[in-house]
Amino acid sequence: MRALIVIFTFFYALYGFSSAYHIIDDPKEAIAFRLAVTTSAKRSIYSSKFIFKNDEMGLSTLATMRAKAREIKANGHEPDIKLLFDSTGSIGMPVEVLLHLEKEGVEIRFYNDIFSLKKSIYNISRIGLEYVTNRMHDKLLIVDNKHVISGGRNIQDSYYSIGSKNYLDRDIYASREAAWDASEHFIEMWISKAVTRFDFGLGSLMKCYDKFDRSLLLLEKITEDEVKSCKLQLAEDGEKILDEVEKKIEERISEVEVDVEGAVKTIDSINHDKNVEFIGDAIDNKGRYQAVLSTKLVEIASKAQKSLLIETPYLIPDKRMFALFKSLLDKGVKITVITNSLKSTDGLQAFAGYYKYRKKLVNLGEGENQIKLYEYMGSPLGDYLHAKSAVIDDEIALIGSYNLDPRSDRRNTEVMFVARDLESAKTLYKSIITHTLYSLPVGRNGNPQNGWDAFPGASFKKRLQVKFYEGILKNPIIGPGIESQL
Q1: How far apart are CA 284 and CA 189, in angstroms?
Q2: What residues contact 244, with CB distance under 8 A and at least 6 apart?
Q3: Which of 35, 43, 368, 470 is the most buried (most CB within 10 A)?
């Protein structure tokens, strides 16, 4: 305990409980900032991601971390590099690369690993089906407990405008106290019972059967020594994969016009003395998810006096959200919400949940003070809206991973960075409100522009699918249970 007090006092004196709050809208700047903070690491890099794909962005990120691990070792230190994946969002990550990274000193763990049969049976018997349904939706990159990047972006090409279809998204760069608090949150999750080491499971074992020309279906045996030999061979394959990726990184940075030096200069020059609070959900000592953020956000939003501006890709209001909106409208608060249209959404089930309540939302309140609801239609900025942000009273800015849906409210772990700073709130307000230029207002009849078409611009296939899901959600027997998972 005394050691913790000393550490706490040291960081208080060093940082003065202040932080930067730099909003990152441009996907190229998002790449630049990630490279800038990662390559600046002296000892530690902590990364938690819901989605981490086996594509250019994913492999380049891992190659950069490997290079940093090697550099730290060359400087006579042990690297403290921890990668935390949600097991469902990282499907397809090459086992060869993961095995190689472990040999390089990079620690890898998974949240609620449902693809390990042994772990799943044990944990479901211990805490129930929530082991399967609760997912880690955090999106954190923390370097040396000094820098943190978070927000809506996962690690996948489409979040950085290098995919065939791309997301309109937003990140926040923060520092000092906010980075320290985010780091504490990460470590608490890392050591929790919900998080386990990378498991060489059945899917990975199949690669060894292939290498030794054995058949699992014919129940042909493979020895422990052969498995060990196979792992070494796979790790060597992983090294070759990252070697090829690393050779191309500098060239791709130039091609995509990513200004890493500009990001470094921005970090050095921006104000690091803003009032920034980090909030994250918790995991208890049994590995169970504990909702913290949703209650805190309701508390913050309920204090709004003038205005509430929200941008969220998924909007499925529950009773608590309706009660919050109603209470704010009753005291004269102006509420504006921007979300996806059917044309722009990437989540049809979630859209069906939103559509069920769309008309009720826009008719909440009385007289002139009713919710202004906009549906994003896609634009050169991105095909799908994925930013998760809010501005309260033009004074408080909020950016994080939290969606306005049941999963973020009580199923997924989420994080949020709250800045009580006029400049940050003004910048974020301009960023969000610009997206209304690419959106249609929803009329009181529940349709965009008060028109006859409920889904302007949407394909016939999407229309059929959302009507099908809407029917399921309206079913009194199975609907409520399914809606709670959206």
Answers
A1: 9
A2: none
A3: 35
The secondary element (H helix, E strand) that includes residue 202 is helix 202-211
Q: Which residue has the tokens 């959302």?
A: 466
Task: Give the C-alpha separation, 448 to 456, whole Å.
Answer: 7
Which helix (H) or strand (E) is 209 found in, with range? helix 202-211
DSSP tag of 367: T
Taken as a whole, the chain contains a residue count of: 486
Has residue 10 got a pLDDT over 60?
no
Among candidate residues 339, 345, 347, the one with its CA nearest the CA of residue 442: 339
In the block, tokens 């930067």 appear at 20
- For the stretch 173-183, pLDDT in tens is 999 999 999 99
Which H/E stretch holds residue 434? Answer: helix 422-434
pTM: 0.93
Question: What is the distance, to the nearest Å, from the Cα of residue 433 to the centroid of all Cα atoms in its chain?
Answer: 22
Cα 312 from Cα 404, distance rounded (Å): 7
**CA–CA separation, 353 and 373 (whole Å):** 16
CA distance linking residue 157 with residue 234, whole number of Å = 25
pLDDT score recorded for residue 200:
74
Task: Among 34-38, 40-44, 144-148, 479-483, name the one with the lowest average pLDDT.
Answer: 479-483
Compute the distance between CA of residue 84 and CA of residue 105 in angstroms, rounded to an integer: 14
Domains in the chain with CATH codes? 14-269 (3.30.870.10), 291-483 (3.30.870.10)
CA distance 157 to 169: 12
Q: Radius of gyration of the chain from Cα atoms?
A: 23
Distance CA 363, CA 445 (A): 9
pLDDT 10s digits, 307-347: 999 999 999 999 999 999 999 999 999 999 999 999 999 99
Residue range 436-467, pLDDT digits in tens: 999 999 999 999 999 999 999 999 999 999 99
Q: How far apart are CA 410 and CA 113, in angstroms?
A: 19
Distance of CA 101 to the CA centre of its chain: 23
